[in-house]
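Q: Hi! First time asking for a complex rather than a single chain. Here are the components, and I think there are two in total. Is that enough to go on?
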Amino acid sequence: MKFNLTAEDKATKARAGEIFTDHGKIETPIFMPVGTLGAVKAVHFHELKNFINAQIILGNTYHLYLRPGTDVIEKAGGLHKFNSWEGPILTDSGGFQVHSLADIRKIREDGVEFRSHIDGSKHIFTPENVMDTQRKIGADIIMAFDECTPYPCEFSYAKNSLQLTHRWLERCVKRFRETECAYGYSQTLFPIVQGSVYCDLRKESAEFIASQGMEGNAIGGLSVGEPDAEMYEMTELVCDILPKDKPRYLMGVGTPANILEGIALGVDMFDCVMPTRNGRNGMLFTKSGIINIKNEKWKDDFSAIDAESDCELMRTHTKAFLRHLMHEGEILAGQIASINNLSLYLWLVKEARKKITDGTFASWKKEIMEKLMRRL
Amino acid sequence: MKFNLTAEDKATKARAGEIFTDHGKIETPIFMPVGTLGAVKAVHFHELKNFINAQIILGNTYHLYLRPGTDVIEKAGGLHKFNSWEGPILTDSGGFQVHSLADIRKIREDGVEFRSHIDGSKHIFTPENVMDTQRKIGADIIMAFDECTPYPCEFSYAKNSLQLTHRWLERCVKRFRETECAYGYSQTLFPIVQGSVYCDLRKESAEFIASQGMEGNAIGGLSVGEPDAEMYEMTELVCDILPKDKPRYLMGVGTPANILEGIALGVDMFDCVMPTRNGRNGMLFTKSGIINIKNEKWKDDFSAIDAESDCELMRTHTKAFLRHLMHEGEILAGQIASINNLSLYLWLVKEARKKITDGTFASWKKEIMEKLMRRL
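A: Yes, that's all I need. Here is the structure of the assembled complex.
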């Protein structure tokens, strides 16, 4: 993997860049649609490519390990061959999912023992086997195995957890370095900064993570319920410590406003289920603001879903039609809403990139944030 | 509407033709994907056009009348404007749905009183108001309001029902002729032959329907549980009576085999929820045979869903991947399966048309039917 910084904003800490992977280039800042089980919910791959302009998608190690199972993905020749997505893939390590989804879990020094949320079967994730699994899945970008602390979290718990995450990271790095790329293309490992909302811990963690010298770095444990102000404070503190010449990934974030603020603080990569999950529930992000498409007021509103959208489907279909589909529980409603939201997110980061390059990011950000976050 | 017969098979009663509507040409024989609520379930309109090659779609008056309501569709400027489908649309009259879906119904001389399956509200469908509703929906092809008899059905019930359907038809035709096209393009009315599985009644009905001199004719009350042999017997009997120079529509049919047999008996138009409904449940129609994609045997079968498919998605995605999505209840599974099945159905009728024109329909039909209906 290679990262070039192509522009830096003067008024903020925003940066534009490009990441080169063996599955293609990623222009940063970038938003990564979440394909939990190897596919973005309700969205075809041809739509990701042609309507949404996705450059990289995310997969979840926890889910893929349980279903279809690493063996099936390995037999297919990796996740790219399995799901036919030709661009870069990043896999989450499962650190977050074993805490949020698994039925019973025991955190031990060697790893996390848990029971599958599907059938109760017992499994263990260790830093080593999670590296091996992600190698086999064939992710271009592999995430370190960490403990994602909840919010709120006692200082003492956060401190101990952080130290465990750091010890696990050393084991991840060791295993990663001892093993080969699985399918002939290069794979890279991103470590994850933790430390809850404690400045001391975040500082300690960011310095430790930076010292590992990996090709990119991530910020975890945010967007888990804390106020936005705390998320931004921690993000800024960490970004200021992480090396400038490597991409920074703020995990699980967020709303369009969160993404714009994150970019302004020096973040390059984002992912979140919000555009697809909220879309399926009728929440639409448009260039004019946020719409609850189930609302009665759209019943006979025959204006386009988003007249300014980059996606022709949103300029063609009307609010009244999408409201009708959503009310009737038609699958197509979730399909259209997911494409709408993802295309807005991908437009947002592309536009941010342009504005950073032009040197007009700060003023544009203020203006567009007001428009995007307005409730219609 | 205009219909040209372009070729007739010598060995069977199959015909190739073309129907001209103000929303475009339909090449027959044709299969019409069902868009119950104005949209084909789990399928985008751009996919209907580009991946499936649909030439006409169906809407259901019963459903659209209840939701979003005729008033909303009228305000939109008709269903084409509401759902953005630019090709021809045929609407079912609701005759079938008031019997199969509505909670409580009373069949009276003037029409059918029923309660909505959604909220229990009371409504009445009469031949007159069903014509008016379909005018307002803006269907290119409007269906007569009929009683669709169940199977099995006593002769005396079928006879009385048939006479009611015929009296209703006279009222439908009268109302249709007294009213104007709703949105500046022409609309046409197809009457429906009933008579259950009784030759005498079918003959009487087909003669009565033929005598109305409408631009196309339909065969209803089949594919409701009777053995295939009875369906074919009734279809042949009716086709032999209906005028040759007008399209014949066999309603609610069926499997690929049913469609091939129907074509051989002189049917020009078909519709059925099978490709989409069964697709969502994991039943795939392919050029090599029928697949239950949930089956364990596909778990690590990395061959294409249908290597010979006209649709590139089916040549790209593997059986193992679709099985995985289907097992996980991913929305994308239903999307892919629906496109697969519909593109197979549309390929089938297009290919049948070619073979009729080439004069090789009979031998091709035998060969392809064996392949298509084989269980893999």
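A: The two ends of chain A are 42 Å apart (CA to CA). Let me know if you'd like any chain examined more closely.
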